[in-house]
Design brief:
Largest sheet: 8 strands, antiparallel
Number of domains: 2
Strand content: 15-25%
Distance between the termini: 36 Å
Number of strands: 20
Bound molecules: zinc ion
Structural class: alpha+beta
Oligomer: single chain
Radius of gyration: 20 Å
Strand order of the largest sheet: 14-13-10-6-5-18-19-20
Shape: globular
């Protein structure tokens, strides 16, 4: 590939994103099965992904489309008692596919504000029911047993939220371009570019792992937070080898170095640096206080009810399962856009995640049972929700076991 990106037709650009999703995101193997979930608005893009998957040697590709309108209709017309129920058979089927060797691609792009006028109680019950049903499948994901990836495609409703002042068609085109750039597919050879990018993150990960910090100390506007790290924590980022031996990139784009915090050793206050879109609701200006790992005070200027319901889902929902460092110079941060989509916003700023920890971020973690993981400090929960705390005004220090601090980031940049 050596074409000038700007000279490509829109269809050729879509093809490139599809190719990177299949070859770099999944590294789909010949004869592998693939399960794709995607919004109905993305049919043209999904068809290109399917073509790339079969060209890569896939045997069976199954696409499960999700229709935002159908989701909304349920909230408007289903009886109240319906919201604790979910399609268990579907969740079972997806888990069975993963266990039999299928790869998984999630294509995001649903309307981030789809459920903004719906009852937070119903939304929370739906999320709990879905999370419970898909726990076996999610475990294969968080343990990185299979090769999986998430990519995004632009949809009209999402584009309107990102570019509220543009006419519809312009907004849609602008969001696609923003996705292409953030996903690093605009160079002459995007597959090679991704290899180079992955190696530069891998070097950072190696440096962080060599330090054996016991905690990270975040200081910024509204934030003075010490995040203790789990015993035997491992930093990760920029792709890795899944349990089936396939090297893949779980997120397109990805800019973060992340690890597992200690679920009982987080103290202080933290203010979000970006609003959060969670399952169709928008939560703004989050500010919380942690004591011994648990959130003891939580506020938001909008969506506070949703935030409180979220952290009450289970014991682990009010504790951290991930901490991640992202420099403010990442191309996504530099775009200055607020995407209202975690895949992008979490790669524009340092962040923390409430809920489930990644077992792969502990030495030998993928072979440990739940009790062994908990003993190391790894959190467990039905939820895993990232929210952004980093900015150009954030300082981060690594804390050694003896309490001494070493600057890691100053004003949002690596020291
Ligand atoms: Zn993350
Ligand atoms: Zn996360």
């Amino acid at each position: 590939m050596s074409t000038d990106f700007a000279a490509l037709s829109f269809d050729e650009k879509l093809d490139r994103l599809a190719l990177v999703a299949v070859r770099v995101g999944l590294n789909l193997q010949p004869r592998q099965e693939l399960v794709i979930t995607a919004p109905l608005d993305l049919v043209p893009f999904v068809r290109r992904v399917v073509e790339q998957a079969y060209r890569a040697g896939a045997h069976v590709v199954t696409v499960l489309y999700v229709d935002d309108e159908a989701t909304l209709t349920r909230y408007q017309h289903a009886p109240d008692e319906a919201f604790d129920q979910t399609a268990q058979w579907l969740a079972d089927g997806i888990a069975a596919a993963y266990r039999s060797g299928a790869a998984r691609m999630g294509i995001t792009g649903a309307n981030p504000a789809l459920l903004k006028d719906q009852d937070p109680g119903k939304i929370s019950r739906t999320n709990v029911a879905t999370s419970k049903a898909s726990k076996p499948a999610m475990e294969l994901i968080t343990r990185h047993t299979i090769n999986w990836t998430i990519v995004a495609g632009a949809t009209p409703a999402w584009a309107k939220l990102v570019f509220p002042d543009m006419p519809k068609t312009e907004a849609l085109a602008a969001l696609w371009e923003a996705i292409f750039h953030a996903s690093r597919i605009t160079g002459a050879d995007p597959v090679q570019d991704w290899k180079d990018h992955g190696q530069s993150i891998a070097r950072r990960v190696e440096q962080l792992n060599a330090k054996r910090f016991s905690a990270l100390h975040f200081r910024g506007p509204g934030t003075d937070l010490v995040v203790g790290l789990a015993d035997d924590h491992l930093w990760a980022g920029g792709g890795g080898v899944s349990g089936n031996g396939v090297f893949n990139n779980a997120n397109i784009p990805t800019e973060e170095c992340f690890t597992t915090p200690h679920k009982d050793r987080v103290n202080g206050t933290v203010a979000a640096s970006k609003p959060l879109s969670h399952q169709g609701t928008l939560i703004e200006n989050i500010a919380v206080r942690f004591e011994n790992g648990k959130i003891v005070e939580a506020h938001a200027s909008a969506g506070e009810d949703s935030l409180k319901k979220l952290i009450a889902v289970d014991e682990g929902a009010s504790r951290l399962g991930e901490v991640a460092l992202v420099p403010h110079s990442s191309p996504i941060a530099q775009s200055g856009l607020l995407f209202w989509n975690t895949l992008f916003d979490e790669n524009a700023a340092s962040h923390i995640a409430l809920g489930q920890a990644y077992a792969t971020c502990l030495v030998n973690g993928e072979h440990m049972d739940d009790a062994a993981l908990a003993a190391k400090g790894a959190n467990s929960s039905l939820i895993h929700v990232d929210w952004m705390i980093g900015s150009g005004a954030m300082d981060v220090a690594g804390v050694h076991a003896d309490g001494t601090e070493e600057p890691l980031m100053r004003a949002g940049e690596w020291v």
